[in-house]
Write a structure and sequence with these properties.
This protein is mainly beta and 213 residues long. The protein is built from two helices and eight strands. A hairpin with a 6-residue loop joins strand 3 (87-103) and strand 4 (110-128).
Length: 213
């Protein structure tokens, strides 16, 4: 009887290990109590791979939204690809317009002072590290290149500079269907040194985003 129990236990452990090691999770593995389960991201319910175009996720977010002085507004489009059940690769761009005003000492009127045009491009990777423990929490790494143009509206001068920064952190993605979601990202800029250029582009070593893709 003991031998039979040992054999059954060995079979159960072997089966669970094989299931854990599967590249593509079964829908039942994502069941969350009474909430149902999330659909597979790279396969149909019948197990057929999704075509390339159905793995693409397109979206973005609003950046640098401020009213008053300064006024700032930007957009950051994103194109992401569901490479596997747990890995997302993507690219993104950004543009942010910022306008500062000053008080004319002679007339006392508000006049344009400086205008900032900021352009950016980035490549990123997101990996869902522990889906069975904390689903939809991704390790996030990216390389961001940003350029900024500063226009002196009083003297007519222009300055342009750029910086490249590696960023690491986490993204929590609240899924909406198979390939859409609300993403909350917190990253740390490994190259931030507090100089004027870094302050103008990033403001601090911490980068926070809310995006939709």
């Amino acid at each position: 009887m003991r031998h039979i129990r040992r054999i059954l236990l060995a079979v159960a452990l072997l089966s669970s290990g094989m299931a854990f090691g599967q590249i593509t999770e079964d829908p039942e593995d994502r069941e969350r109590g009474n909430q149902g389960y999330e659909p597979l991201r790279t396969q149909t319910p019948e197990g057929r791979p999704l075509p390339f175009w159905q793995r693409l996720r397109v979206g973005g977010g609003i950046t640098g939204f401020r009213f008053g002085n300064p006024f700032s507004l930007g957009a950051a489009p994103v194109v992401a690809y569901q490479a596997s059940e747990r890995l997302v690769l993507g690219i993104g761009g950004s543009y942010t317009y910022t306008r500062y005003k000053a008080i004319d000492r002679v007339t006392g009127r508000t006049i344009p002072f400086e205008t900032y045009n900021q352009f950016g491009a980035r490549g990123f990777a997101m990996f869902e590290a522990l889906p069975s423990v904390i689903p939809n929490l991704y390790l996030h790494g990216e390389v961001d290149n940003s350029a900024i143009q500063v226009i002196d509206n009083i003297n007519g001068g222009r300055q342009t500079a750029s910086v490249t920064a590696p960023l690491l952190g986490l993204t929590f993605s609240q899924r909406v269907g198979r390939l859409a979601g609300v993403n909350i990202t917190a990253l740390y800029n490994l190259n931030y040194n507090g100089n004027r250029l870094n302050q103008a582009i990033y403001g601090s070593p911490f980068v926070f985003r809310i995006s939709f893709f």
